[in-house]
Amino acid sequence: MVGKPSKLKKNKPLLGNHQKCWIWGRNAVRETLTAGFWPVYELHLSDRLTTEEREQLEGLASQLTVPVFISTDKELTQKSRATDHQGMIAKMAPFPYTSVEKINQQEITSPLYLILDRIQDPYNFGAIIRSAEVMGANGVFVGTHEQSEVTSLVCRTSAGAVNHVPLVQSADLISLCRDWKHNGVRIVGTAMQAAEMLTDYDFQQPTAVIVGNEGTGISPELLEECTNLVRIPQQGQTESLNVAVSASILLYEASRQRQFC
Q1: Residue 58 belongs to what H/E stretch?
Q2: What is the spatial order of strands in the sheet that 228-231 belongs to?
């Protein structure tokens, strides 16, 4: 369907206000349409896209019954307030987090979970989600307090990975950790002075890794729930690593062990 965008009904919630409800860019838009997980209200395409690219995107949108509108680059920029849209923007519903119950119903022999404790920078959040998806994490768990939501910026930074790795929002990460420990899942945190080296921990066993807030690290309450504390080997003089980098290193080591050990 090509035409003029219709006004959304009042009972249809948006990802953000009218200026913040858009995602854009080839990776984010294409991955979102392909996955069919995050509800899309409208797809707007530039009239400068090639016929082949436009038809491909229109086909994906058609499968999801998403209306498509052809616009100029200037119109896309005005709607999304972005100049790097690459000729495609999509109006989005709020992000659909996965429930804890749905994750618990999955039959995973040795799960690898990632807990994010108050990650506030959307760039960090998106980068961590991207690493989690690439490295095979079975779920990313976030709290509801002082935690970045899944926004357009998070989606773009994750290169669309928000559509492919389960993201769970929980108001009580402490109880979640306790339930996991009761069911044999190890809770692993990081500490610069930890006796156990990252590479010495056995990631082949059921594990939930915690990474903490950019400024204060893992909260004392969650640290108390850890069954193991590991340290990432460092040789330089910088005191600590960026949280997204730390998460990537932890996930890489887990992936390496699970694939090759």
Answers
A1: helix 51-63
A2: 167-169, 139-142, 112-116, 207-211, 186-190, 228-231, 196-197
| pLDDT 10s digits, 107-145 | 898 999 999 999 999 999 999 999 999 999 999 999 999
Closest residue by Cα to residue 99 from 47, 12, 169 = 169
Q: Which of 228, 260, 256, 254 is nearest to 110 (CA)?
A: 254
pLDDT of 1 reads 45
Cα Rg for the chain, rounded, in angstroms? 20
C-alpha to C-alpha distance for 197 and 174, rounded to whole angstroms: 24
Which residue has 């618990």 as its token pair? 104
Name which of 91, 84, 93 is nearest 25 in CA terms.
84
% pLDDT > 70, the chain: 93
b/e burial code for range 37-67 (CB count within 10 A of at least 16 → b): ebbbbbbbbbeebeeeebeebbebbeeeebb
Question: What's the pTM?
Answer: 0.90
Q: How far apart are CA 31 and CA 43, in angstroms?
A: 13
